[in-house]
């Protein structure tokens, strides 16, 4: 496989705990909290990333809605990167409209138009359409990667696993020619 071959990534909306979900059992939350130090160590050792996540259990829907607007405004990747950094590195609350508006401005959007988009049902429907696709795939966790609309790789996987999937797709594409 050619390492310089183009790769297109399309982020889709997904909510781990959508509005109306039952309360998280305390023992499950405790297991998540107990696993965080190991997760942080892996991020540091394997990827040279320091994790400093935002508040646990925030409503990510406003950020997902904002990303749909950002995509249409041509600022999708910059907004996505800003939201990820805000939550995972800067411990910011990505359910806060002011936090999101700051990220939107840094990504090149006008604050007022962005804030209005957060209340526009068009973008909320776009988020819901993505979530409906995830349900059809049977997804119930993140991360999940779907390659070529055919291959699902669920959970955090080593880069080598992802390479193998891409190589398999390339081989199949070559044999179809």
What would your notes on this structure say?
With 177 residues, this protein is mainly alpha-helical. The chain has 2 domains: 27-138, Glutaredoxin; 141-177, no CATH class. The protein has 7 helices and 2 strands; from the N terminus they run H-H-H-H-H-H-E-E-H. It has helices at 26-47, 61-72, 76-88, 97-106, 111-118, 121-137, 159-176, and strands spanning 144-147, 151-154. It has a two-stranded antiparallel ribbon with strand order 1-2. The longest helix has 22 residues, at 26-47.
Key structural traits:
177 residues; two-stranded antiparallel sheet; globular; Glutaredoxin; 7 helices; 2 domains; 5% strand; mainly alpha
Share of helical residues: 55-70%
Structural class category: mainly alpha
How would a crystallographer describe the biggest sheet?
2 strands, antiparallel
Report the CATH architecture of the largest domain. Answer: 3-Layer(aba) Sandwich
Q: Calculate the mean pLDDT score and round it.
A: 88
């Amino acid at each position: 496989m050619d390492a310089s071959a183009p790769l297109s990534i399309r982020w889709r909306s997904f909510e781990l705990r959508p509005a109306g979900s039952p309360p998280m059992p305390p023992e499950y939350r405790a297991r998540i909290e107990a696993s965080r130090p190991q997760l942080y160590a892996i991020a540091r050792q394997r990827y040279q990333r320091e994790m400093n996540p935002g508040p646990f259990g925030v409503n990510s829907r406003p950020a997902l809605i904002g990303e749909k607007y950002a995509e249409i405004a041509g600022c999708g990747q910059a907004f996505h990167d800003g939201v990820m950094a805000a939550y995972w590195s800067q411990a910011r609350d990505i359910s806060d409209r002011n936090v999101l508006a700051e990220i939107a401005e840094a990504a090149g959007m006008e604050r007022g138009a962005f804030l209005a988009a957060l209340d526009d049902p068009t973008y909320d429907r776009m988020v819901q359409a993505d979530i409906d696709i995830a349900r059809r795939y049977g997804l119930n966790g993140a991360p999940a990667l779907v390659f070529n609309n055919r291959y699902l790789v669920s959970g955090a996987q080593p880069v080598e696993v992802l390479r193998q999937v891409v190589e398999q797709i390339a081989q199949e594409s070559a044999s179809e020619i």
